[in-house]
Amino acid sequence: MDTKVKINSKTYQLQRYPKTFDKSLRAWSNAELLALDYIAEKEIDHLHLFNDRFGMWNCALQHKEITAIWTYASQQKAIRQNLKLNNFSTEIDFKTPLDDLQNVEVALIKIPKALELFELFLQQIHTASNKKTEVVCGFMTKYFSPSFIRVAEQYFEEVTQSKAWKKARLLILKIPKKEFQNKNLINTIQWEDKALRQYYGVFSSGSLDIGTQFFLETLEVKTEELKVLDLASGNGVIAYEVTKQNPLAEVTLLDDFNLAIESSKINLEGKKAEFLCDDTLEELKENSFDLVVSNPPFHFEYENNIEIALNLFKGVENCLKNNGRFLLVANSHLNYSTHLTKLFTSVSVLQQNKKFQIIECIKKR
After folding, report:
1. pLDDT tens for each residue of 66-122
2. By the 8 A CB rule, do 139 and 111 touch?
3. What's the chain look like in SS3?
4. What are the residue ranges in the chain where pLDDT is below 50?
5. The pLDDT value given to residue 138
6. Number of C-alpha atoms within 13 angstroms, CB side, residue 179?
7. Contact at 8 Å (CB) between 351 and 318?
8. pTM for the complete prediction?
9. How do residues 238-279 score in pLDDT, each as one tens digit?
10. Which of 54, 62, 82, 261 has the most CB atoms around its CB within 10 Å?
11. Contact criterion met (CB below 8 Å) for 325 and 338
């Protein structure tokens, strides 16, 4: 696994967070290097950085004034980890995609997999732009979609594409459109009697994903399950169903994605709920939950990666009470039961269809 990268005659140490054992994965891409090369000769006082997933741009541009727009708790940790690794200050001006920005001069975006999140970034930039604003968007050519250009052209008059370099390209956006009305970038999804609302970029924007639907159709919350954790909670629909079945339940929602947490706050307004934006369960007390429910992630942008879910499972075992239950839905091909039997004394498949399994784990000590 490469951990060193040379940028403009300087060498930086960069490590992935969360840690991975896949030696083919790096903490940077050629798209990010190409963006740095493009701005290398420009006189820039202040940069806004979007989707700097592991902190490469924050490290290489640490001599500049930077505002980093974060979307994941794990992203914040990765940025600070790599700044510290290179002996740079870890004091960062962090903003979320929902925060107001001031005077965007140059923005760098590593285009995310979720096209809606890309649009949310562009609207945030446009609101704080001027006639000299320039947005540099990097992507790997194998992930290119004409939709990148269609979205960009809604916000900027001039959208050009660079030549390819090591399978990477840039979209350069200039001249923000004057006549533009901000969209309300929130989707509405109907689930039974509930109109769920979620910000652009949150998983499964068009409708409730079929894995979660299968889980909700089979979920039965027991009356004695009063302390419940919704892990990788997304828009909060599973936690909402828990409170519907057991109005006395207190739910904790935990998700790595800050826009998911902000969406779930809307959907569980007035409920007994706590919201945590984090990528681990380390802040939760041991033996504190009667029930943990989850549709755990196994995608990391374009990567399929079950390492994240397996680490979460260890945290679940720690925070469950004795005789507590862990209920999850998973794609059958992931074979999670094999891993879960190493953590829980009782693991069984409650329901399954052609694609998904509902797995129940019981903690007994």
Report:
1. 999 999 999 999 999 999 999 999 999 999 999 999 999 999 999 999 999 999 999
2. yes
3. CCCEEEECCEEEECCCCCCCCCCCCCCCCHHHHHHHHHHCCCCCCEEEEECCCCCHHHHHCCCCEEEEECCEHHHHHHHHHHHHHCCCCCCCEEECCCCCCCCCCEEEEECCCCHHHHHHHHHHHHHCCCCCCEEEEEEEHHHCCHHHHHHHCCCEEEEEECCCECCEEEEEEEEECCCCCCCCCEEEEEECCEEEEEECCCCCCCCCCHHHHHHHHHCCCCCCCCEEEEECCCCCHHHHHHHHHCCCCEEEEEECEHHHHHHHHHHCCCCCEEEEECCCCCCCCCCCEEEEEECCCCEECCEECCHHHHHHHHHHHHHEEEEEEEEEEEEHHHCHHHHHCCCCCEEEEEEECCCEEEEEEECCC
4. none
5. 98
6. 0
7. no
8. 0.95
9. 999 999 999 999 999 999 999 999 999 999 999 999 999 999
10. 82
11. no
- pLDDT value of residue 47: 98
What's the token pair of residue 213? 């639907």
Return the bridge partners of 196, or none. 189
Dist. CA 294–CA 317, nearest whole Å: 13
